[in-house]
Amino acid sequence: MVRVRFAPSPTGNLHIGGARTALFNWLFSQSQKGKFILRIEDTDKERSRKEFVDEILLSLKWLGFKWDELYYQSERFDRYRQQADKLLKSGSAYIEKSPEGKEAVIFKVTAQKIKVNDLIRGDIEFDSSLIKDQVLIKSDGTPTYNFACVIDDAEMDITHIIRGDDHISNTPKQLLFYEALGFPLPSFAHLPLIMGMEGGRLSKRTGATAISDYRKMGYLPEALVNYLLLLSWAPGDNREIISMDEAVGLFDIKNVNKTAATFDLKKLDWVNNQYLKNADPQKLFDDLLPLLIEKQYIAEQGFDKGYIIELIKLFQARLPRLNDFLDWADFFFLEEIRIDPLAQEKFLSRDLSKEFKLFISGLEGLSDFSVENIEKSFRDLVGRLNIEAKTLIHPLRVALTGKTIGPGLFELVYYLGLERTKRRLLKWAK
Fold first, then answer.
1. Widest CA span in the chain
2. Are 381 and 362 spatial neighbours (Cβ–Cβ below 8 Å)?
């Protein structure tokens, strides 16, 4: 059975690179009907933190990567020592004492050519004569990364190691350990790096943000996963939006790109919008509710849920991020709105008292205050005034919302209601 693992270190939060590695391991395991193993590599006692463990686990769950088994390296120190002792007894390792008398276990590297068939990159050759003797157990008793990694992968029956290509340099060292301990070799696949738009590794400015932060910014998990998949793989037929169920059926690790991927935040926004426009407004409401309360747009109790869901429907087809709703729709929740100064100068600098009052009068005369009737009243008015619709639409929008873009004028008047519409427009009518 195929068994893969994702092995994050809890010395920081889960970021884009790690999330994509987790995705490709999870996706490969699902496509092969195998197991996805999660291993927390917490041997660094000084830098490992429980809050990072919690964040990693929560982020993986949010992304939908369910693991079949969970291990912590900190609980396996005895196993690393036992395997190091085997290498000492076989003569493959030796003891090195520090000036303080503490002992470290060192592996003897023998000169040889090492070859590995990478499932993504093809054959890769290494010359071990360029590698110095390797520390297995440090003088403080903790195992080194490469040694603990090999012991865990072997004892957890990992069949395929899928990781970033920054680990390629670790591969020959690990293969030497596999050979010395008589462990069967797994298959290797090294994913290309993710670069920023301007080249170079991701920085916080170019996308190296914690997954939990993307969640807070209003990205949907299925959208983020879809985008991560596109960074190094494509479903074909120029498709970019694909569900994970579909991807499982199409995925082949050998079709992963070899070249570095570029993280484009604008493209992520586009993908997120594709999911937002088709999302269940009820689900979006559930995600937005705590933010609306935090912003004091609504009270914790007594709000009109149905009304808010209707507002979400007005905006969701245009939102790049769910949290943008808080800014784009603020005029529905605030009594006093902020008018964009440039918009005010462009659309409200002339006296519109006559037009605004006539528009209000038309609304007051409606027996059925509906979107259709609001539009009919408006069309009748511009016809009587013999002006183009846009001549009045833009000033009305700015006066009512403070913005130049947003939902259709007639929908926003309907959801603002007659009284709020009158109050806002009369502020500009002399």
1. 100
2. yes
Distance between CA atoms of residues 26 and 162, nearest Å: 10
Q: Give the bridge partners for 113, in sequence order.
A: 127
**What's the rounded Cα separation, in Å, for the pair 12 and 33?**
31
- CA 188-193-194 angle, to 5 degrees, is 140
Report pLDDT digits (tens) over 183-206: 999 999 999 999 888 777 776 566
Query: Is the Cβ–Cβ distance between 247 and 99 less than 8 Å?
Result: no
Task: Provide the token pair at 33.
Answer: 């009907």
Distances (CA, A) of 385 to 83, 126, 182, 380: 90, 82, 90, 9
DSSP state of 329: T
pLDDT digits (tens, 9 = 90+) for 46-76: 899 999 999 999 999 999 999 999 999 999 9
Strand segments (E) across 234-327: 261-262
What phi-psi label fits residue 207: left (phi over 0), alpha (psi between -120 and 50 degrees) or beta? Answer: left
User: CA 233 to CA 191: how far, in whole Å?
Assistant: 10
Phi-psi region of 33 (alpha: psi -120 to 50; beta: other; left: phi over 0): left
Query: pLDDT of 3-17, one tens digit each?
Result: 999 999 999 999 999
Instruction: Name the residue with tokens 């008398």.
Output: 101
Question: Cα 118 to the chain's mean position, in Å?
Answer: 27
Q: Which residues pair with 107 in a beta bridge?
A: 93, 134
Do residues 272 and 217 touch, judged by C-beta distance below 8 A?
A: no
Taking the C-alpha atoms of 294, 300, 303 and 306 in order, what is their torsion angle to the nearest 10 degrees?
A: 80
Do 377 and 313 form a contact (C-beta atoms < 8 A)?
Answer: no
Give the span between the Cα atoms of 59 and 216, in whole angstroms: 11
Q: How far apart are CA 19 and CA 14, in angstroms?
A: 7
Taking Cα atoms as reference points, which of 302, 298, 273 lies closest to residue 288?
Answer: 298
Residues 6+ apart with CB under 8 A from 60: 6, 14, 22, 38, 67
Q: Is 276 helix (H, G, I), strand (E, B) or coil?
A: helix
Give the rounded distance of the alpha carbon of 34 from its chain centre.
25
Nearest C-alpha neighbor of 154 from the set 68, 253, 79, 57: 79
